[in-house]
Structures are given as C-alpha cells and as structure tokens.
Write a structure and sequence with these properties.
Low-confidence stretches: none
Mean pLDDT: 92
Structural class: alpha/beta
Number of helices: 6
Radius of gyration: 14 Å
Distance between the termini: 24 Å
Largest sheet: 6 strands, mixed
Order of helices and strands: HEHHEEEEEHHH
Length: about 150
C-alpha cells in the first residue's frame, strides 16, 4: 500500500481561514463549495447529502474543538480534504461536548479505492490532530499557508 503524505492531500484551494458561520450546515456547505470549485466533486448538494448521511451514524466532533466529518459519494471525482478554521465556535456533536472551531472535511469516492484512501487520510489527520500544539497553531492560523505549516508540525 502506497503511503500518503500531507503534501499529496492538502490543497490550499480547499482551505478557509476566519470562516464566519452560524452553524454546522454553513460550514459543511462552504467547504463543499471549495471542493466543487477545485474540481473534487461534481455536485455540492449530492456531496452535502452524503455528509449528513454519515453524520447520522455518530458524532464527528473528536474533541478539543475539532470535527472531522466526511462524505462518501459517487459525486466525488478526487479524494481530498478541506479545512475550515472558524472565527468562533459553532455547535457540533462531539465526544467532549465542545463545539467546533476547526473542521477537517474529507471527500471520499464510493468505491473500494476511495475507502482505502479515506482510511489513510483519516489515520494521518487523526495523528496530527491528536497533538495539542497542532490544534493551537490551527486555531491561530490566518492563511492557508499557516494551516499547512500547522499540519506539518
């Protein structure tokens, strides 16, 4: 199995800093639009629907103000990740009952290759997001470059 590296997965076109959102739906839609604009997905609405189908299965907030939702859909043309740094916390179902300030949204093709790639990406990001220093840097990020630098810590 080929190893994925952060530079293969992180795309500055799918990073938003200082996102002003009132709720989870606005965050997911903003990130889905970034995926669409960058050519990762063919339909914002179909992709968002797949994210909500996954959300029904359980909390995607992993604690420490971080959420890692994902959608598995036939509309996905390229597996990837979109990252939002919010300007304030929004309500999000989480393991520690905190809302989200950092949202890492995965898009996954609905084939077996997509599933394998998703697991690799999830493992990579879970390891990074488990570090307090990475979260602190992400919360302070003011640009896509800052987000990339935080993830490379």
């Amino acid at each position: 199995m080929e190893n994925l590296s952060l530079d293969q997965v992180i795309d500055k076109r799918t990073i938003i800093t200082d996102l002003r959102a009132d709720n989870k739906d606005q965050v997911i839609r903003a990130l889905a639009k970034r995926f669409y604009d960058a050519g990762y997905i063919a339909s914002v609405d179909d992709y968002v629907q797949s994210v909500y189908e996954r959300e029904k299965e359980g909390a995607t907030g992993i604690g420490n103000h971080v959420a890692i939702p994902h959608g598995k859909s036939a509309t996905v043309k390229k597996n990837g990740v979109a990252i939002a740094i919010l300007n304030h916390e929004v309500a999000w179902e989480s393991l520690d009952d905190t809302g989200a300030k950092v949202v890492v949204l995965f898009d996954v093709g609905d084939d077996s290759e997509g599933a394998k790639t998703h697991l690799k990406m999830l493992a990579m990001f879970a390891k990074k997001l488990g570090k307090e220093s990475v979260i602190e840097s992400l919360l302070k990020a003011e640009s896509a470059d800052d987000v990339v630098a935080a993830m490379e810590e």
